[in-house]
Amino acid sequence: MEHLTLLIDGDIVCYEATSAIEQEIDWGEDLWTLHSNLDEAKALVETKVMGWQERFSADAVIAFSDSTNFRKTVYPDYKGNRKSKRKPLAYKPLKQWMEGVWESYQRPGLEGDDILGILATHPSAIRGQKIIVSIDKDMKTIPGYVWNPDKDDEPVFYSTEEADYWHLYQTLTGDTTDGYPGLPGCGPKGAEKVLEDPSWKAVVAAYEKKGLTEDDALVQARCARILRATDYDYRKKEVKLWLPTDMASAT
To answer: CB pairs under 8 A, 24+ apart, for 200-209?
Structure first.
């Protein structure tokens, strides 16, 4: 049987565990504090991750986001809607603990999603079969196996053509969670209509119909692009920004 590795979104696992164990304490006389027990968070993560490993008889690799993000150089307002949001109290120490228990990756300028995408599509970085484990819909833009433990009974396989489709779909719809708008006024139904012809040409035509340009579409596409192995220069340790010629269907 081929060796199997789960590529796990550490940002989400860590956030969910530390959010779950935060407790409000009322000390009386209008004094309130937040309390977190790190051991409780560790237990939650161990149960979850080791349960996944046992189910699939797999190793686990955890990916975390860097504090900097290359997409901000593409679109300065990227994730600007999160500036006022704090991480749970025990997030940092739990992350450090997770990095000591499982093989983990964090790279300058990259989000955890990008690391997952690179590892999943690199031919030799991790040998054998790989499954991305994440509840983030953006993972549909990565070719290969993806498992959303909150929704899917089994991992779902996305071909390169399907992954390219979902990348163009995100370019049109944008992502309110990540703070990039996509094509103004274009929701899921509109994106499906445009992508009856799943091509960059069709996406550009939709942008131009709204009085925008191909450059505007390219900015949104680069925000939506979760990196694959071919999108990174390993010698320079730099992102290679996406171009329409990177699509499998490009001629």
So the answer is: 200/168, 200/244, 200/247, 200/250, 203/168, 203/171, 203/172, 206/172, 207/183
Question: Token pair 């053509």 is at which residue?
Answer: 161
What is the C-alpha to C-alpha distance for residues 34 and 158, in angstroms, rounded to an integer?
Answer: 42
- The model's pTM is 0.93
* 3-state class (DSSP) for residue 213: coil
Q: Could you count the other beta carbons within 10 Å of the beta carbon of residue 106?
A: 18
What distance in Å separates the CA atoms of residue 77 and residue 178, rounded to the nearest whole number?
9
Residue with tokens 């269907």: 249
Closest CA to 24 of 42, 14, 36, 15: 36
Residue type, 135: I
CB 212 within 8 A of CB 223: no
> Could you report the average pLDDT of every consecutive run of 10 residues in the chain (251 residues)?
91 97 92 94 98 97 96 91 82 97 97 98 94 96 97 96 97 93 96 97 97 97 97 95 80 41
Cα(167)–Cα(186) distance, integer angstroms: 15
Q: Quick one: which H or E segment has residue 158? A: strand 156-158
What domains appear along the chain, each with residue ranges and CATH number? Answer: 4-246 (3.40.50.1010)
Beta bridge partners, 4, equal 129
